[in-house]
Design brief:
Length: 181
Amino acid sequence: MKRPHHALKEFLRNKFGDSIAEFGPALFIVLMFLFFPMLNLISMGVYYGLGMVLNYNQVHEAALLPAAEANSNTGPVKKSIPEQWQAGMGQFAKLNGKPETNITYRTGMSGPGGGAGQNETTDKIVMVQTTIKCNPFLPIPLPIANIPGVNGPFTFTLASEALMENPDYAGSAVAIADDDD
């Protein structure tokens, strides 16, 4: 007489090995449509974080420098900081080219001067826009299309603003901006 748990085993397991035959296609689907795209998604988040570190360092330095020095293609904001970043943290991002930096200035709030007999002062704000183009961590070969982040390069454009330490450093590069308040 058979025990009831053996009957359940015989019911669930086929004697012909069908379950092992289905393992290969199932593993292919899990890897190609879940694991590798998730790995690329995680790497995109890491690349974004690394790009934000670069952008934050650039905007911090641009807030301290005169506009002519900050906008210089050989200056610290557009050349030195990205080069140091690429030699350090940036080497973990699979870049497709060099980071591009755009620096703009705008006027901020106006207020009375800080001392006796001083005129009205106006804050100056610097905005640094950094564009990085990255390749996926693990390109998935899809013959159908070139999908950014899966098998094609993708672009991040990161922007940050900071108050100028010395408003006189912004010079005449300040654009007239409409207040949204």
